[in-house]
Design brief:
Number of helices: 12
Number of domains: 5
CATH superfamily of the largest domain: membrane protein fhac
Low-confidence stretches: 1-26, 209-214, 304-309, 449-462
Number of strands: 17
Strand content: 25-35%
Structural class: alpha/beta
Strand order of the largest sheet: 2-5-4
Distance between the termini: 91 Å
Radius of gyration: 36 Å
Order of helices and strands: HHEEHEHEEEHHEEEHHEEEHHEEEHHEE
Length: about 450
């Protein structure tokens, strides 16, 4: 790249020096001929077309810059040099190209925990194409990342480029897997309400122990699930709605392969349930939907006078999410498949200094969907009437998700089709929000029936 830049600079100087008047006007040099050297894979005419360089036209410094940039962008060239001169009294522009070698093959050596196929599925290093050193470096990083995900933090990946007699290149990624990291200890920082043991018991990522199942294996995807789902769920179900993992650090001893996992967390404040309301509902009364409210059995005040006298309960994220989903399901089962039930939490401090979270279901009901058409596809042997008798919805019915699921189960239980059946689909039928329902089936071959006949003395057929 540096040689190409030098060639461009020399070209620019030659453009500016001969004719001050032309330089002042901002024009380049009119090139009479263009010479391309070193192009064996692409014809010279193709190179010039890509470069955008035409004879008989004025070519400036910026034109050459663009040409070099475009040619490098093809991935074909390792180096490009451009120079200007005079040939037989004519202005000439010369492109000297050094092509990248073709990548004949690349392989993975020394790997037992990772297959070459899994690497090829993620790598962007293509055989039979010009060799891209940057792509090879990215592939090396990909291999390293795969090993880290499997807990091999001590793995080392080296890249070797092997020139071949025909000018092509072979690439080998040599892997020294090292020891798989085993977690010896998990430390928790920032926990005030729960002990280290209470926190770490919620993790699937744990230290090695006495029992055979306590291997202490480190898996990156498993730890990510621990930190994104299991810990927030544990705290959220106990009122800590602002809980977050601030940082996770893995300290690995290179000689032993033992590691310490350090988790820094911010528990936040614990919240109790405050008020509750439902807004936006028109079809179903607030009193009716309030039956799904999950904290009415424990709160002294709150919603519609429900509850006992023990004071506001600790907020439980799992119960709140389950109740919200139950309301959605109720709407879906009554034709309101476009209904939205959005849970809203508003934090505040009560008069006695208690942290409260006011709850609300923001409902957008929409209009109920009507079944416009029920289609059955894929039944090449079974009569359509047999299948339709198992479908618990007909055109004109209000679409109910529960009826759709029961129909799916009934059709599956006929025993005529390959299992599992694809889930039935429903698609918008018109602007009013009605739906077309589609059941896809594939006939199952249950065996062959053979008809035989033999010749006898009596009737002739027996």
């Amino acid at each position: 790249m540096r040689r190409a830049a030098a060639g461009t600079l020399a070209f620019a100087m030659s453009l500016a020096a001969p004719c001050p008047a032309r330089a002042q006007a901002g024009e380049g040099t009119v090139v009479d001929t263009v010479i391309v050297s070193g192009a064996s894979r692409l014809p010279a005419t193709t190179v010039l077309t890509l470069a955008g360089v035409l004879t008989g036209r004025s070519i400036s410094y910026r034109d050459v810059q663009r040409a070099i940039h475009t040619l490098y962008g093809t991935g074909q060239y390792e180096d490009i040099r451009v120079s200007q001169g005079t040939v037989d009294g004519r202005e000439a522009l010369r492109f000297d190209l050094i092509e990248r070698p073709m990548l004949a093959r690349w392989t993975l050596r020394g790997a037992t925990a990772v297959s070459e196929g899994s690497v090829r599925g993620k790598a962007r290093l293509y055989e039979g194409q010009p060799y891209d050193p940057a792509a090879a470096a990215r592939t090396r990083a990909t291999i390293d990342s795969i090993y880290r995900q499997k807990g091999y933090y001590l793995a080392r990946v080296d890249l070797r480029e092997l020139p071949q007699d025909d000018g092509s290149l072979r690439v080998v990624f040599d892997v020294d897997e090292g020891r798989r990291v085993a977690i010896a200890q998990v430390e928790v920082e920032g926990n005030r309400r729960f002990s280290d043991e209470q926190v770490t018991d919620r993790l699937k990522t744990g230290p090695e122990g006495f029992f055979w199942f306590q291997k202490g294996e480190y898996k990156e995807d498993q730890l990510e699930t621990d930190l994104r789902e299991r810990l927030p769920e544990f705290y959220g179900n106990r009122g800590f709605v602002d809980f977050q993992v601030v940082r996770d650090t893995l300290l690995v001893h290179e000689e032993t392969g033992k590691a310490t996992l350090v988790l820094e967390i911010d528990e936040g404040e614990q919240y109790r349930v405050g008020t509750f309301e439902i807004v936006g509902n028109r079809k179903y009364p607030t009193q009716f939907l309030g039956q799904y409210y999950p904290f009415s059995d424990t709160t002294g005040g709150g919603f519609l006078g429900f509850g006992g006298s023990r004071g506001p309960p600790v907020f439980d994220r799992a119960r709140w999410d389950e109740a919200t989903q139950n309301v959605r399901t109720f709407y879906y089962n009554n034709g309101y498949i476009y209904a939205e039930v959005r849970p809203v939490l508003t934090r505040r401090t009560g008069p006695d200094g208690v942290n409260l979270v006011d709850l609300r279901w923001q409902v957008g009901e929409g209009t109920p969907a009507i079944v416009n058409k029920v289609s059955i596809r894929g039944n090449t042997i079974t009569h359509e009437d047999v299948i339709r008798r198992s479908i618990l919805m007909v055109p004109g019915d209000v679409f109910r998700q529960e009826a759709l699921l029961r129909s799916y189960q009934t059709v599956s239980n006929l025993g005529f089709f390959e299992q599992p059946l694809p889930p039935p689909r429903y698609e918008p039928a018109n602007e009013q929000g009605d739906v077309d329902v589609v059941f896809e089936v594939k006939e199952r071959h249950t065996g062959n029936v053979n008809f035989g006949a033999s010749l006898g003395q009596g009737t002739g057929v027996g």
